[in-house]
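S.,

Sequence below, as promised.
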Amino acid sequence: MSKHIIVFCEGDHDIAFLTRILLIQGFTFYSKKVKDFPPPLNELYQKNLGNKEIKDYEFKFQRPKPKVPYSVLTKGDTLVIFHNLDGDANFCRDGAKSIVDMYLNLNKENIRKIQKYDKLNYRFLYFLDSDDQGVDTRLTNLKDSLELPTLNNHEIYTKDDYEVGCYIFHDEDHDNKHGQLEDILTKLMKTNNEDIFTGSSAFLEDNPLEDNRQKKYTCNIENESYCGTVQFKELKSLISVAGQLQFSGSSNAVIIANSDYIKKDDMLANQHCINITTLFELEATVDN
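The prediction came back faster than expected:
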């Protein structure tokens, strides 16, 4: 029986990292054109692509809308479909829920159409940074949002006729399990690359900028100004600086996806990667 694992991520860095974990577990890229996806997914995605807006003033014309998959992997009869929610705020609002409803409605429509295709079997997975809230608080907020009686990291739960699971990225060395994906990534990347990361860290320390210059700068014919919040994130910048030695001008997502700073054996031995892998194993379930 085929399985559709729908994955919600805060951004493309998460997707790049999760993809690397899955590739060493035997998953491969699903390279079919949208029109050749199995029905009814092909019709659904073609419809959503047709509704896509191009906002070139935000320089986001290459980024899919949340309801259009960012990328897809496959293994056997399983499809892993990644959705980029572009930030954590969309997890506890309507962003993720609207996508869940979008998929569940396909089965409802199928019943009304006297079952034109087999029922789609879903598992919805949520990946979030713990940030300053800590893992427990993140889990509680997500549990309440999903209306589940309980929710733990890297466990799968049955709800109604689908499955749900999550992983909260955190620094395992922090007492309250605060942190983010970059805490995991930098520890993986520093292995056997200490000199490179020491030098990259020194560069960041030697070239600090005042807070105002770490905000978005805009200018036009009438004025110029800084606006918004400070955008500097030390660990993101550290990965970027070190990554430019390999992939000049590339984004962190490209670096995470392609750099040999992250090795197969290190991922296979890393407890975060091991725990994340269990979320994609079809037989691991906990009934609610």
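The chain has two domains: 3-178+268-287, 194-251.

Coffee later?
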